[in-house]
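ugh ok so i messed up the first submission bc i forgot one of the chains. this is the corrected input, ALL of the components this time, i swear. 266 residues overall. if the numbers dont match what u have on ur side tell me asap before i send this to the collaborators (the ones from the other lab, u know who)
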Amino acid sequence: MFAFNRLAPLLELSEADELIDDVFLGANGAVHVFPAVNVWKNAEAIIVTAELPGYRGEDLEVLITGKLLTIKGGRGCDEAAADARPCRIEREIVSFERSIPLPFRAEQKDIEAVLRNGVLWIKVPVVADDKPRKITVK
Amino acid sequence: MTHAITKADEQMSMAPCARKTFMPLANVYETPEAYIVIADMPGVDEKSVDISLKQNLLTIRSSMKPLEMEGFELVHCEYENGDYERTFTLPDVVDANGIEATVKNGVLRVTLPKAEAARPRKIAVKSE
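and heres the new structure output, hopefully the right one now
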């Protein structure tokens, strides 16, 4: 059970650390941030996708400030009848704001954002000046 | 023996990777006439949802194609794509013919009207 490791005496401590992290960060080490995003990249652009079910286009705002991409939004309550009795509530009504640092500067006018079936898709093209340039070595 | 294990390993790695199934978060409401189930299913449209009712078990299921990003490389991943599935046990008898379902902005809404026998009836109290 407790095996003292000569080479890594603090190993047990780091395991304890992991256990504590599990409690606060979730079992897979993911930090609870909203919304969860996936980021895709190639030489021309970056694509950010986020799952935002129940949000409409007008509920969301996508902003760019220098190198910082910000997604803001909030969704309303369920449209249920006035005499509806809630039996189970798991979906949260969330107002959120999340900023994602980009590796380059971008212009607000170049950004494309599409919301389809509750998935937000944002494409940020790399500004020509920021693209890597190949320099020939003589 | 070693050979057999290697072969089994090979088969395992050759097998197509199983898609993950997620349980959608849901709100459930009850009105005197019906139950309303509202579930978050981002990425799902009306064509990919399958709803079935067996006795008092309501199952919602959906399979959707993962978002393809041709020419792009995934560099940061916080959520995964997969199928959705969840079963709810309903307390009263539901009128299976009257079930209505809609999908809007990645949210599924199922309205299940209660069967006539399960609806509350108002009894008028007469004065003497």
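quick check: The mean pLDDT of chain B is 83. that seems consistent at least. The CA atoms of residues 56 and 90 of chain B lie 5 Å apart.
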